[in-house]
Design goal:
Length: 153
């Protein structure tokens, strides 16, 4: 089994509880609104990181981040984008197994046309009454499944 830690919308805050929850991941995806490049450096101490640029990511460091990316996990393709509405392809037609996104700060996990759509929610500063959370994807036996993980304050 391959484990992918999924985090989004840190907005310059990498909570110790989020960092600890990502330990043991084989890969990490950051779905945008990183806020501070040091967060990506810290996550790289756990596992290789795939990160995309969010709408608040600016500066020369952020320009190095792609708007979208694709990660091959055990032969399963994971498409990463910050704002789901900006998607520029049909994931099921493109052979994508999962679409990981952020932006809304709302944790979501749903299957559409055989594709897992997964938003880990926000791991950064609390927004309104939305939960603080991360997620994990598991790839085994040609299947991909997700788990949303609420974090303590």
């Amino acid at each position: 089994m391959i484990t992918v830690g999924v985090i989004s919308d840190t907005h310059s805050l990498l909570r110790p509880s989020a960092f600890d929850a990502l330990r043991g991941s084989d890969y990490i995806i950051h779905a945008g609104d990183v806020g501070d490049p040091d967060i990506l450096d810290q996550l790289c101490t756990i596992a290789p990181v795939t990160a995309v640029r969010g709408n608040v990511d600016s500066g020369s460091w952020a320009k190095k981040l792609p708007i979208t990316d694709i990660l091959d996990v055990g032969g399963m393709l994971v498409y990463v984008i910050h704002i789901l509405q900006d998607i520029d392809l049909k994931p099921d037609a493109a052979g994508i197994a999962a679409v990981v996104y952020g932006h809304s700060h709302k944790p979501v996990q749903e299957i559409r046309n055989g594709v897992l759509y997964f938003n880990p929610g926000s791991a950064g500063p609390r927004r309104f009454s939305l939960p603080i959370s991360i997620g994990k994807l598991s790839v085994a036996g040609g299947q991909i499944t997700g788990e949303l993980i609420p974090l303590a304050r």
